[in-house]
Amino acid sequence: MLTQSITPIRLLRDSLISVIPIYTSLLVFIIPGFIFSLLQFVIPKIWFTVLANLYFLSIGTIFNVALIFFAYKKLNQEEVTIYQALQKATEKFSEILIFEIFQVLLLLFFFPRLYFGDYLIIIKNYPAPDAVQRCWLLTKGYGWRIFGNLLIINIIQQILNFIGSLITASIFGVSVWEVNSDALSATNAAFIVNNFFQIPIYYFIYRPLSKVFVTLMFVRLLARDKRKLGSSVM
Asked: Where are the domains of the chain?
């Protein structure tokens, strides 16, 4: 793609176009999380919470960064296999984990300019500390635009969730708020039906789209940075 636009409308349009040819392959990295999420219906909530934290700090992280690596290569029209993406993610797992712990300890996830640390580690092979510095330089002047793009993709998720909840609320004759209330038990029919809609929507629609959206933004930030460096040399 020749354009380097990171406006939300353009990113969203190009993401919708780009996700279609690689959608089936992306599901390989997404389905494990979908299967794991179904455990909430068969085990106590407290145990699911514990297992979820362990999953997303181990296998979940590997599949997530493998998805990032695979999407990046495909968006750049480079050859890559699912096995290569998983192998790369496994090799970089410790660095990614260090960076994510670093984020939590210092609350860096509040700073959009440091959002692409994982991307720099898995794609550009930066060590975790250097990824923070490089990410800060890469996103210089784009902080608010990155924040706006992330906000918009999050709003899209909320809209998709609302649609699922609205369908459930209509079936059971209750309000959308009641459907999403924490007071509902995991065995409640409305809770089960609501999750029946929301979980597939998240994993099979929102997640592939959002990953391509953010990865495409990263690709274009790199392209802008490269152009900027080229101009300074000249």
From this structure: 8-233
Cβ(115)–Cβ(142) below 8 Å: no
Q: What is the pLDDT of residues 18-74, one digit of tens each?
A: 999 999 999 999 999 999 999 988 888 899 999 999 998 899 999 999 999 999 999
Interatomic CA distance for residues 200 and 103, integer angstroms:
29
CA 137 – CA 51 distance, rounded (Å)? 36
Q: Model pTM?
A: 0.89
Query: Three-class SS string for the chain?
Result: CCCCCCCHHHHHHHHHHHHHHHHHHHHHHHHHHHHHHHHHHCCCHHHHHHHHHHHHCCHHHHHHHHHHHHHHHHHCCCCCCHHHHHHHHHHCHHHHHHHHHHHHHHCHHHCHHHCCHHHHHHHHCCCHHHHHHHHHHHCCCCHHHHHHHHHHHHHHHHHHHHHHHHHHHHHHCCCHHHHCCCCCCCCCHHHHHHHHHHHHHHHHHHHHHHHHHHHHHHHHHHHHHHHHHHHHHC
Contact between residue 70 and residue 54 where contact means Cβ atoms under 8 Å apart: no
